[in-house]
Amino acid sequence: MRKIINIKVPQPVKSEDENNLFSLVLDDHGIILSIEKCAKKEFSYDEDWFGDWLSPRAIDLQINGGLGISFTDLTFNQIPRLLSLLDRLWLDGVEGICPTFVSCPIDQFQLGMEVLNETKKHTSKNRCRLLGAHLEGPFLCKSYSGAHDIESICKPSISALNERIKGFEDDIALMTLAPELKGSFELISRLRELNIVVSLGHSSADFDSAMKAFNNGVTMVTHTFNAMKGLHHRAIGPVGAAARRDDVFLGLIADGVHVHSDMIRLLKILAPKQIVLVSDAISAYGLGDGSFDWDKRLVIVENGLCRLPNETIAGSTLPLLDACKKIANWINDPSAAIWMATLAPRMVLDQKKMTAKSFFIGKNIQSLLRWKMNSCNHQLSWQLAA
Predict the structure, then answer these.
(1) Are residues 326 and 187 in the same domain?
(2) What CA–CA distance (Å, rounded) separates 130 from 122?
């Protein structure tokens, strides 16, 4: 048995974290048996973490590819490279991903799903897991299409949904759609029957139509502020509608370019318990700057930011936990930043709505992360917990 004291558990609100120190009891194999608040004086323990945070690895709900491959364009001969990407993501602190498909033809999507299912047979202990897929489209608003191929966007209908996902219903975790489009509410109802999370994105929804969507089963916003109406003092749009609630998560690309750092600070004030960090990484992830093929188009990467030749932003190459460290500085709350990248995405996918502490019981500490705040330069860093 082993006891570690003075551990912090990430919390979305600073006041909930500052004075909460926990102790862990582990068995001889490193499995966490209990996590309890520390006593005022701990007289018997094996290790003191002095207020460092413990977290699971990250979960990325929106990632389009990496190391030169795009999930939307997967083929079976790319499986070795896909496995290399999963190994790279594990080293970058990511435990699982929702491989994201942008709007594309049906046969292209179904081939990609078949490749992912074959790749899942090659899981291993120290490799990022493939979770359910994220379908970002094709039932989107064309005027807010962003970097999506507008020819692949289509009108929502049950028949169009069934034709696309037939046979893969259990392999999908999340779908982004524009809820203001005619026919979308029938899709939302069907997706919820299938236990698929529905997210508002690439949408022209205003406050009222967004609120109606949230009342009818939409529980997330995809890359908040991007490809949707923004906050305005007389028209607060879908972001304002989501901030009025406590049951809608806000996916956020925290590279400082998709959304300005000061707007991220404001969003944290408006919706402190709702932000979920996503990478929106594309095929150029892990390849550095340069010009690359993406979704049958050219993408130019400069300082980690990806753009199409027409200057449209097309994702990012910033590792998710690097974004976590950035946002920790911007909002002056490292605990909340860690929560956004590691615990919040689990809560999006979790149907039982587990508490933060419950994610640790039964886990081997070697699979978790330890976070430190450097007192000299005030930079957040992570390492393996063991």
Answers:
(1) yes
(2) 10
Which DSSP letter does residue 232 get? B
Taking the CA atoms of residue 47, residue 12, residue 259 and residue 368 in that order, the dihedral angle to the nearest 10 degrees is: 30
Give yes or no: 350 in active site. Answer: no
Tokens at 338, concatenated:
């860690």
What CATH number corresponds to the domain at position 8? 2.30.40.10
pLDDT digits (tens, 9 = 90+) for 196-254: 999 999 999 999 999 999 999 999 999 999 999 999 999 999 999 999 999 999 999 99
8-40 pLDDT tens trace: 999 999 776 566 899 999 999 999 999 988 887
Q: Which amino acid is at 358?
A: S
One domain, residues 255 and 157: yes
What global pTM score does this model have? 0.95
CATH assignment of the domain containing 68? 3.20.20.140
In the chain, the number of structural domains is 2
Q: Using alpha carbons, select from 163, 144, 63 the residue that is nearest to residue 105.
A: 163
Closest-CA residue to 279 (of 39, 23, 93): 93
The secondary structure of 151-171 as a DSSP string is: GG-----HHHHHHHHTT-GGG
Task: From the candidates 280, 289, 295, 350, give the one annotated as an active-site residue.
Answer: 280
- Strand, helix or coil at 327? helix
Domain that holds residue 28: 2-55+355-384
CB half-sphere exposure, 8, CA atoms < 13 A? 23
Distance CA 327, CA 314 (A): 21
* Cis ω before 138 (30° cut-off from 0): yes
